[in-house]
Amino acid sequence: MPAYVIVGMQWGDEGKGKIVDYLTRQASMVVRHQGGNNAGHTLVVNGKQTILHLVPSGILHDETVCVIGNGTVLDPGVLLAEIDGIEAAGHSCAGRLFLSPSAHVIMPYHKLLDKAQETFRGKDKIGTTGRGIGPAYADKADRFGIRMGDLVNPALFGDKLAAVLEYKNKILRDCFGESPLAFDAVWAECSAYAERLRPYVADTVAMVHRALAKKERVVFEGAQGSMLDLDHGTFPYVTSSTTLAGGVCAGAGIGPKDITGVIGIVKAYSTRVGEGPFPTELTCETGALLRARGNEYGATTGRPRRCGWIDCVQLRRAAMLNGATSLVLTKPDVLSAVDAVQICTAYRLDGAVVTEFPSQIDDLARVEPVFEEMPGWKTDISDCRAWEELPGTAQRYFERIEALVGVPIDIVSVGPGREQTIDRRDPFG
Ligand code: GDP
Ligand code: IMO
Ligand code: MG
Question: From CA 367, how far away is CA 358, in angstroms rounded?
Fold first, then answer.
């Protein structure tokens, strides 16, 4: 069955949104299956920028069905603002955007708790986006969560909210010294959202399976990146969902055998927002140059992204964890500014050279990267539209990454625009 997963191979912000939008011309359905509005996915079409947080990046293609699956966490106010923005730009959401009734709702207390927990952690803070993601997923596991199906059911919602709010107010007040939330205000706000969102709620599992049964191509759009995965990332400096390709099964309700391919999105250098180890980080002028040239500021929070060289030890691990079948390389145009590029091929850990990514964070925090230097291309490549038009130096850099990661690069992106894309091979082929 023609289901393809698109997954971030680093720490997020690899350019997933751009590539999902680009590939949607060959797909009938785009599905978000995890994360929430901690994501910021940027699309540039005909020079116009759109930043999406929850709505799948297929929405600018008017024939494509977009699904927000059960594994996501939804902030209803943010979602409605996003829908309004998309409709104002001339793309209708009604009748082609669908929400799972099993997706958990990010409630006002989740956002308060996210901030309060970060303050409590002090110097050990995670650097979350403050969007209530962790507390919403915690409530799902704790079975205090309110789901979209509850929100849009007036007969259920009031009672559920009353029970949960009593508990949450106790924590807000007694643990964090925060003011409790008034039931009437939360109920009124959420009920207004529910009125507007009710028509979008549908059995998304059945929809995805109907599409797959008809052999329509379905693209699953990952949010965040492999190293932010709750189990396999740099815990505790991770997000609270399964960001890896395997998360699609639980987060959208398909079986592993339904997945045809896994397309990993790799930035030509590395970035990370928030705290946590980052072996190839450049705290020098070169890092600042990449940040400026790559406009590396968070699409959600505006925070400057930490920048560094590409890390093939980390990428090999991500390829393994996801079962990546092909890669898309983004933003090599940013590297046109440097004389030479560095590729991390191994780590030095306590005097020994290791080529496996350490699974323990205290080891990862101690490693020193081993670099291989290659000449830069020192020329603008943003107008290249075919592999053959790329300078030989750039081609050799890409081929070296392929060899080190062990997965072929099928597409190269050379700018933020939809058209600034080089097809080398069909990733759906
Ligand atoms: P996502 O979270 O993975 O969807 O990525 P973001 O949208 O957060 O960040 C990627 C940024 O790089 C956005 O500003 C994109 O417009 C931009 N971008 C994507 N691909 C390219 C590329 O090939 N070259 C350049 N220069 N910018 C790109
Ligand atoms: P996209 O989909 C980059 C990071 C946060 C923080 C950690 C936990 O745009 O690639 P959270 O709010 O999820 O509890 O924060 O995860 N983070 C991201 N970093 N891109 C993202 O999404 C991210 N979503 C969360 O900065 O370090
Ligand atoms: Mg992003």
Answer: 9
